[in-house]
Amino acid sequence: MSAQLDQLTAAAANDPDTLETKEWLDALEAVIENEGTDRAHYLMERMVDLARRRGAHIPFSSNTAYVNTIPTHLEEHCPGNLEYEERLRSWMRWNAMAMVVKANRADGDLGGHISSFASLANMLGIGFNHFWRAPTADHGGDLLYLQGHSSPGIYARAFLEGRLSEDQMLNFRREVDGKGLSSYPHPKLMPTFWQFPTVSMGLGPLMAIYQARFLKYLHARSIADTSNRKVWVFCGDGEMDEPESMGAIGMAARERLDNLVMVVNCNLQRLDGPVRGNGKIIQELEADFRGAGWNVVKVIWGPGWDALLAKDKEGILQRVMMETVDGEYQNYKAKDGAYVRKNFFGKHPKLLEMVANMTDDDIWRLTRGGHDPHKIYAAFKIAQENKGTPTVLLVKTVKGFGMGKSGEARNTAHQTKKLDDEAIREMRDRFGIPIPDDKLAEIPFFKPADDAPEMVYLHKRRELLGGYLPQRRPQAAESLPVPALSAFQNVLDATAEGREISTTQSFVRIISTLLRDPNLGQRIVPILVDESRTFGMEGLFRQIGIFNQQGQLYEPVDKDQVMYYREDKAGQILQEGINEAGGMSSWIAAATSYSTNNRIMIPFYTFYSMFGMQRIGDLAWAAGDMRARGFLMGGTAGRTTLNGEGLQHEDGHSHVMAATIPNCLPYDPTFAHEVAVIVQDGLRRMVAEQEDVFYYITLMNENYEQPGLTPGTEEGILKGMYLLKAGNAATKQRVQLIGSGTILRESIFAAELLQNDFGIAADVWSAPSLTLIAREGQDAERWSMVHPTDAPRLPYVTQLMEKTTGPIIATTDYMRLFAEQIRAFMPKGRTYKVLGTDGFGRSDSRVKLREFFEVNRYYIVVAALKSLADEGVIATSVVADAIARYGINPEKPNPVTQ
């Protein structure tokens, strides 16, 4: 960048015809003056195009000069009472600091952050006072993804508004007793306050982009009027290093999301040090966003610089601004005016001359643009009114603004949470907080009387914007009936003899039934990531269409086929391409629509279970935090169900990951009727009863006969386990075989082998959710521990198993840890043996893979026989005979090590 500028400067100095250059520039000025900037832009583009076509080499640059995008004469000034707003902002800065410092003086390891809000306070104040609307009867409200580390400042504002008490402020980061404030934005823990979680970093920008697109989706489908709503997302410049932060900016421009505003707080610092010490993060981000098609507005310099830039006739100041790297800018704000004079203005004698009449204090008061209300208001106004493209505001600030020597612009600013008395005094004086010296050591919160003019102003501003923010709707006002289980009769019945279908096909039948439902059909949101044909869902393309704001501008190549690829302005499918994170973000937007839009939506996000759950684990936790409601459908699930694909395609752990999220209800059903029972119950809980849970349901592409629903087993399916098939009652020796997903069928076949080859009866148990029965067992165990004088509660799975005899063998298509969850709840003295698919996947047939991972019917038989032998029920020679009979190689390497 610097070399490019040097070339331009040299070219200007060696201009062979300055008169001609001036004539061209004068002509351009005349066009701008008389016909406007659009006409000037058109002419310049035509000239550049002509020059390139004639062979001229014109290097492309998506950067503009390192100055404010909005010229001074076009700035729209803030209409508010800036004196009141400045005082309110100062009080919020103080209270945010006091909350964090008091928490850490009382308990030194609670943590907290002061510096992020200190740099953001001006932007947040302008937004809350003049732009961001709360939900009202005629407006759905704006959606705010607030920078996670700025939460103390949001609490400080809510405290002045009377929405939070002093007791709550004193319990910052102390939530266990139920009266504290969460460390970051957490809707799970503060369900009427925070709209969205924005930590882990990077998730806020990604989710906000898909949230903005979902608002367009709702409007296009006439489900809700979202035409005047905006999504605002605040993030730090360091946060933009996260791939998720930048990964979807192309989609936002392509989808013309003019309802999206991203504000990047460019305070030039991460936790450890500068973001781009040797570079310029604002210029880097400008190039990325402009290149992607965004409207980019830079707010770099405060008003004190305007006069200096106006004097800069030779462009020397602009050149020095561009050549100075971020590490230097950070250093300037950590020092003083004399240092800035010497090391910044001292880079050129004419710059020193320019500031010769300014004192060092005058130079120090040259602020960055993010700390000036007029500059911020003007940028927000443009973002609010921009049409056709998303907007990003790149706003330069000082990290830890107002923290003085304790943290302002210093590498330690992010972690600073303990201030000494002198730093607190300095902050009080700097912001004019009316607290006397004798009270300073207490670091009291400051809140003026309710009738103070500033407080009246504060409430009036929010009244004009519809109410207070952030706020979250915990329940939708609407109520939707759900279909009875009988509506899914086409998958509840047994398949005809010889007819085989997969649970994936059954799911397609279920979703097709729902799409035809008069109450829920329009609220179903199928979300796919370029795997529709894999799952047999391509029939939905023509039936309900793929959402595209432009419609279909081409004739699809398969138009002559029944299931052709159809895009539509009001399409119902969200087709996200090869993009699991985007698919999950769309799912989250739909799954929280009951809160953000007062419209219950029912999203079904269907993905390869391997590529889905392991890639979107952080987003799945965010969904739990947001109290999401919907269905995640993991297709081709299990380590051995997917023929011929290989290591990276085979899922043996998604259920272990799903089990970690408390409000995720994971199921691994084997049969079509189990899927129907689970989905119908999910609709009841999430739609009819508006319960804050979501479902992860795995599906298989393996075809087999479906036995149909046995009435009375519904409760066991939902609880997580039920008796599928009892062994021969007349047989004395017995074992219990537990299975889930596709491997349950191996247990069924193993039961037949045990009976036919060894005269041993096997009861076969279907376990659609080992995780849920484990959670129920843990709950019962805990209850019994804390109620020692009461009769102990018996876990559900214990109740089932204690009525049986013989060893218990659990086999799944997942790593052993999945079935190990329930070991603690087996009846005392009973053998419990687990088989699973630990290790790396590989390509082969299902038969060979199940042999390799030792989860096929023969290994189940051997495990059952060995358990009986260990108990002394049969001779060990019987086990050896079985190994020989089934051709098992006892010297075969352990699959975990392969």
Characterise this structure.
The two termini are 51 Å apart. The protein has 898 residues and is of the alpha/beta class. The protein has a six-stranded parallel β-sheet, with helices on both faces. Strands 1-2-3-5-4 form a five-stranded parallel β-sheet, sandwiched between helices. The longest helix has 25 residues. Helix 31 links the parallel strand 15 and strand 16. This is Pyruvate dehydrogenase E1 component. It catalyses: N(6)-[(R)-lipoyl]-L-lysyl-[protein] + pyruvate + H(+) = N(6)-[(R)-S(8)-acetyldihydrolipoyl]-L-lysyl-[protein] + CO2. It comes from Massilia aquatica.
Q: What are its keywords?
A:
alpha/beta, 9% strand, 898 residues, disordered N terminus
Quote the distance from N terminus to C terminus.
51 Å
- Which strands sit side by side, in order, in the main sheet? 9-6-10-11-13-12
Q: Low-confidence parts, pLDDT < 50 over ≥5 residues?
A: 1-11
Q: Using only CA atoms, what is the Rg?
A: 33 Å
E-strand count: 18
Largest sheet: 6 strands, parallel
The computed structural class is alpha/beta
Mean pLDDT: 94
What coarse outline follows from CA principal-axis ratios? elongated
Number of helices: 37
Q: Oligomer, anyone? A: single chain
Give the percentage of residues in beta strands: 5-15%
Fraction in helix: 40-55%
Protein name: Pyruvate dehydrogenase E1 component
EC number: 1.2.4.1
Catalytic activity: N(6)-[(R)-lipoyl]-L-lysyl-[protein] + pyruvate + H(+) = N(6)-[(R)-S(8)-acetyldihydrolipoyl]-L-lysyl-[protein] + CO2
Keywords: Oxidoreductase, Pyruvate, Thiamine pyrophosphate
